[in-house]
Amino acid sequence: MRTAVPPVACVGEPRLTAGFAEYGRLDLLAHEEVHGPIGPMEPAQLLQLAEGMQLKGKGGAGFPFARKLRAVLESCKRQDLAAVVVVNATEGEPASWKDKVLLTRAPHLILDGAALAAYALDADEIVIGVADDGVGRDSLMEALEERRMPVQTTIVTVPHRFISGEGGALVNGINGLPHIPPGTKKRSSDSGVSGLPTLLSNAETYAQLAVGARLGPYEYAALGTDDEPGTVLLTVTGAAGRPAVVECTAGMPLRDVLDLCEVPDVQGILMGGYHGKWITPEAAEKAEVSRKGLAAVGGTLGAGIIVPLGVDTCPLGEAAQVVRYLAGESAGQCGPCKMGLPDLARAVDLAVAGSQPADVVRAAAGEVKGRGACSHPDGTARFALSAIEVFTEDLRLHSTGDGCGRRVKGVMGLPGAPDANPQKLTLDWSRCDGHGLCAHVVPDFIRLDANGYPAFPATPVPTWLREGALKAVKVCPELALRLAKAE
């Protein structure tokens, strides 16, 4: 469980982090002194502001906020229903801390943005989703006690899992359903919380909206680029000598952020988090911190996560650990996740072992891309593919079967196992006679190789396949298969 919020730094003019140096956490009085007053806005005003700011979602997808707002307004009018405003502050991405920093140190900025949206939509309720890791909830509750919100505002706690932060999963959790993405894609702007039109956006997005409402679109655009005005919050971890949450001006050289966080020589840098992309050290020297700037060098801004990988660990081994984790974090309700992600994890593991070429990883990734009920298969495939493209020399060394000679240090910020009692299958080859019964019992996880013997990934058995794995163990006539605690 995460408890310690990392330090905060700023390159350039602070906006979201203004007042942090003086006050630490901004209570309501400090918040108003630093940021000044704010008043309600009518729908047309708020739309004009969001469009003028070119405000995009800060949770990873980068969807224009004005389009979300307009969609909810139109849906409310069409259905003659009230709206709900949802703040996604769950931050299920293990490597991300930016929303936690806002919750713990600038909660009133988040509440300001949510209140602006609720007033413009004439909403019935504001719901704020936070993770059950305990970080930020008390600060948020204290902030709510200090002020009056325009409508009823509640806090909903969700499991601190990777997929719990997906928008549809959060809506499901608020509605009392399992905290997983819905099995089919649907728009929360049409039917979200309690079946009502729902405006759902990330905590930083609402905080940026509150900053823009005070500055106006023109002053807000005094920082940043023409395409992406304003500032960006980044979480820098991994090999950084000074890990931190950094606020910087959009368009700033990535090298300035890396230097601030004392990042040493690296083999590659993961941009955007576990659903992001790796870039080379050479690309990092040319990159600018913006969606457009990072895309130009093969990266992505995503949720504002930067994980530099030092030269003292095995990069493909580190990537394989993440793919295994992501396979275990699946909701397990559609084929690309349920079957495809374990296959992808297996393919990456075998590439690291030098027993299969990179083409097998590409093929496994191709089987899941664009086919999932949510973005989890796409994001996992993107991560795996970029790893084999960036770490080509390491892949060549592993293809010989000897490996790169570096151990896997586990520096990617992976949390503990996704369930309290993770278990993995093991096989006693001295007993196995290749009956193949196990693969018939749980084909989602166990396959037969070219010689008819069982093959399965080294990842812990996903919770939704645990019962099937137990059955496979029981039907093995030679008692060769075991289900043991994963280390």
UniProtKB/TrEMBL annotation:
Keyword RNA-binding: no
Keywords: 4Fe-4S, Flavoprotein, FMN, Iron, Iron-sulfur, Metal-binding
Obligatory cofactor(s): FMN; [4Fe-4S] cluster
Residue ranges of every copy of the NADH-ubiquinone oxidoreductase 51kDa subunit iron-sulphur binding domain listed in the record: 316-360
Keyword Metal-binding: yes
Pfam families: Complex1_51K, Fer4_15, NADH_4Fe-4S
Family according to the record: Belongs to the complex I 51 kDa subunit family.
Name assigned to this protein: NADH:ubiquinone oxidoreductase subunit F (NADH-binding)/ferredoxin
